[in-house]
Amino acid sequence: MSNIVMQSLEGNVLHAFGLANEFLKVCPDEIWAQKFGGWPVWQQLFHAFTAIDFFLRPADAAPEAPLFGEGVGDLKEPAKNTPSKAAVQDYIEKAQAKVREYIAGLDDAALAKNNEPLAGRFGREITHAGTVALIASHTMYHLGSCDAALRENGKPGVF
Which residues pair with residue 49 across a beta bridge? Predict the structure, then answer.
């Protein structure tokens, strides 16, 4: 792994993941199932990490089997039931491991290359550097909704 990857990109992803992990620790059960930003708080967080399969899946691989119901992970359908924090945390840890493995395989030369599988799904070019930035920014975007739910309920946020 190069200095650019480690110093400029990986740190942003790890920061976003650390905030998500902290949110899992501090989110009370009464907020976990509450709708905020149009979706239950847990589903916002879950979606941020189901997107990792979309971002990193090889071109010829099938999408992951839907967890917690069809359309739940991609925010197309509300879940019928609220999963435990432990179940969501288990999924998030696996998704974070995929990202760490992906980043560990990058070097400076790879950063400017097109991420062909993701580009095919997007219908436009996106480099590996762009993919890493997208993972961090997408996670932070949905974590912002979760953090706002904490603050709107009188709790300290994780930011």
Answer: none
